[in-house]
Design a protein that fits this description.
Blueprint lengths: L1 H21 L1 H11 L16 E4 L6 E5 L7 E5 L3 H9 L3 E5 L4 H15 L3 H4 E5 L5 E4 L5 E4 L8 H4 L7 E5 L12 E3 L11 H12 L27
Parallel strand pairs: 1-4, 1-8, 4-5, 8-9
Antiparallel strand pairs: 2-3, 6-7
Helix pairs in contact: 1-2, 3-7
Bound molecules: magnesium ion.
Magnesium ion binds next to loops.
Amino acid sequence: MVWFKAKARRFDRVAKKYLLSSGFQFTDTQHFSQVPVSGSALENLPAYRPLLVLDLDETLWHGIPDPPVSEGHRFLVRPYLESFLEAVADHYDLAVWTAASEDWMRAGLRVIAFETQFDLAGRAFFLWHRDRCTWRRTEEGEGELRKPARKFRARWVCARYPAHWILVVDDLASNDLCGSGHLVRVGMWTGDQEDDELRALAAYLTAIVHEPDLRQLEKRHWRSTIPRNANALHD
Ligand SMILES: [Mg+2]
């Protein structure tokens, strides 16, 4: 009997680990336990959606020095940012992960909210900044900030968003997200007003949102795979 109970406990641990890594059943169990049992509880279940983690600098904005202003800098907002955020928010939950400092991140997010009327900071599942990155030494011996995909294995993240439901939009591939399947790499933006990367990206992300495993998709040449009739932006 003792042997049987030990086996059962071990099975329970293994099963929980598996469910956490795969997401679905454990998430549902957690979720149902939190839903108040009333007549229309099932109707009020929020639909789980993939998570889109956004880089900021040179992806959504470009910060430039500007000594005359009180902060000493200002943020240029990438073309189509407002319509991009509105379009992807229809299909994805949003989060932020930047290698910048928290002060810089929050200053830029205030500019975004003012210029686009889209409160990205308020709607983000998390706001990760430099403190969530790790330092790694490059071949040249210099320190470099990276965003390791293992951070998504935090229990409070993967309980809601299994790994195959997380995409990251970033202008840099030189981090651990590159080989993990999460990355949708965009061109680095430094102020070109003719840039339409976010417009194309919204169409692409909208087209793939129902794929069962977003990590397995080949995303390196994403611009060439957008359906011709895709136009996700609100005109
Ligand atoms: Mg960047």
